[in-house]
Amino acid sequence: MAQKNDTTALILAFVVTAGLIGGGFWWFTQRSGSDLNKILSTGTNPSTGSNDGSNSAPPTGEPSPQGSLATGEGFASVQKVPSGLFSYGGSTTWAPIRLIVDPVIQSTRPEFRLRYVDPISGAPGSGTGIRMLLQDEIAFAQSSRPLSDQENQTAAQRGIKLKQIPVAIDGIAIAVNPSLNIPGLTIDQIKSIYSGTVTNWSQVGGPDLPIQPFERPPTAGAGTIEVLLGDRKPGPNVQDVSTTTAGLRKLAISPGGIYFSTATELVPQCTVKPVPIGRQPGQFVPPYQEPLVAPSGCPAQRNRINASAFQSGQYPLTRNLFVIVKQNGGAEQQAGEAYANFLLSPQGQALIAKAGFVSIR
Question: Which of 274, 336, 354, 360 is deepest in the core (most CB within 10 A)?
Fold first, then answer.
């Protein structure tokens, strides 16, 4: 009988204990506002490999939004991109962009295939590329100068309208032989040198040494003497060189030589010295980031473009790079405008800066 009573007491104690535990758990989950499902699901989520908390980081290997190019900013988001193979050509100034930017466009948008075309005759350049565009040899052109009145007139005579789309900022740099000691040149002094009015470096604060100016042919764009002279005529002592490479070689062996071209081509060179220029005497702005790297320190170190002065306009000889588009409503126009839109996207502008130019946006 005693054993039976003990068993009954144990059963009653178990029931009472279970009721107390159950009631306490009910009160905790219902009255305290706690969520049982949340409590049970605080472990790792198998679909993401991370906790479900709002402050949790993305899984390893997945970039955070802050560390990647947001959707709508890259090449993949550019709209109205035609499919096909499109030929293009023009300015030699664009060579670094073609080298760095174009392969990324190709890999991101394989439907938009690009092919650079050299001219059949003559040296490549802005003018040559625009001529090739007018003759239907390429779909769009790359230019380091604006369209000329003559080019617009030629286009109109052929029933064509051309559009120039600025995509980057570059500058024209003046370079001299490394042995020449001169603090800088004003725009007017440069014009006087190339028009033949100034023929000795002593006339502009340098040594008693004859000046030997070099220039590229009119088809070159950035190296065209009209960029500097405007309505002035070049002097009889100006020597033509076929390419920037030829100009650099001439300058390296000519103590009194002077040459000008796009800053991205001249500033990093080891065999010549870029010259600060200004609008007024004594207000010279270098096309390079100071301090100047001497030829003896090159190529271990190279001079770099003074991007801030180019973008602010403080450096006096800056200009835009243009995509020249044929406004015909056809595939050529679509290709040219798409290419310009690639370059004007944040991804394109970042790659342009990587290529040594200054972003326009």
Answer: 336
pLDDT in tens, 38-68: 322 333 333 333 333 333 233 323 232 222 3
According to DSSP, the β-strands at 212-215 and 162-176 are: unpaired
Domain 77-169+320-359 and domain 170-318, same fold? Reply is yes
Among 320, 325, 262, 347, which Cα is nearest to 88's? 325
Tell me which CATH homologous superfamily contains domain 77-169+320-359: Periplasmic binding protein-like II (3.40.190.10)
CB distance 87 to 139 below 8 Å? yes
pTM of the model: 0.69
Tell the residue number behind the tokens 């060179």, with chain if given. 269
Domain boundaries defined on the chain? 77-169+320-359, 170-318
Alpha-carbon distance 18 to 142, whole Å? 84
Topology given in CATH for the domain delimited by 170-318: D-Maltodextrin-Binding Protein; domain 2 (3.40.190)
